[in-house]
């Protein structure tokens, strides 16, 4: 929790530095599966039309960023810090260090996504019409212009002997935390089916957004100096600081009524998609996906969340600001209060924000090279432009994924190129019956030599009912 709080506080910003990652990339590996059910609809809502399942239910699944510290310091709620911060004040400093860096450079992107019960039901012959619902909680911590000195101050702490003295300056450093809940209705149809030749699918999801909290800090310019305080500890001094920060809500208790309260943020969004499947393989198993090529195009997260003018915003300048390790931790725990205590409440104004979701264009091509063996190419391209905090960001992603899929077992090996990284990452996912697990960068978790060290990690449990296998 502290990590998000960290975002609200100068120290918190250090806390986020080690977690330069990316937006939810739709369960990489499983996102292309014909057995992903309702979880595939977030990538392309048309995908669930003509499905093998008569019904499909996602009981629970999550997707988050981790690094190899996870296996040493795992805690039960560490996965969920990006959205828990909106409602609680428990210490998240240690847990935030479990998140990993998926991208390199001066940007920070941390996520946690909890997919709560969701599902769909197919109607008519060959499930030509499918109606589904989706619910999920999403949390993001993002930053731009992150100086390496701030990144290292968090990553290595100021009191563990790994810190080195440094001086410099930076400009246009922004951190933003946003948490919200989605409730969606998905409708997909298959208007054209010519057996053995072509199948055409279309779909859309309408989403109601319930914003929990939006907080930002911008340091327009500052000088910094990291210097030793004593034999064991360093301090960081910031000089000539020009800042601005704001928040829609302080940390407060959560209730189900918060999801629909007018005191919080609200908005709408839409996902649109189309899929074409071409050809078939002779003597193929009737109960499995049978096409030679599948091409899908979708536009997702087209929408925004707006908050009422009940928030607070401050701006000002400071000649000097000194932070040691204890202050770094304390500020993170105190969330918004920390910003008000450390930076002050100069030039108060109301904060009524609107934030655009990370709208993306998702294109994938799936080729069946042999029975049950596929190769998928996916391109995820951001389409919204603008700076934080008004726009959530999305790095560009390209992945190639060999996949073996069956009714009861599946294995994928996604090779992914993230925008800003010099080398691709190699992950895997497996599904046995109702459960599945996956990573986008398994090598980064098990070897210190592999960079970046972070990985998306996800896990889920699902239920389903199959169509009659008879012709």
TrEMBL record:
Give the keywords, sorted. Signal
Q: Which residues form the signal peptide?
A: 1-24
Enumerate the spans annotated as DUF5723 domain: 45-438
Note the superkingdom of the native organism.
Bacteria
A Pfam family matched by this chain, by name? Answer: DUF5723
| InterPro entries noted in UniProt | DUF5723
Record flagged with keyword Signal: yes
Provide the protein name: DUF5723 domain-containing protein
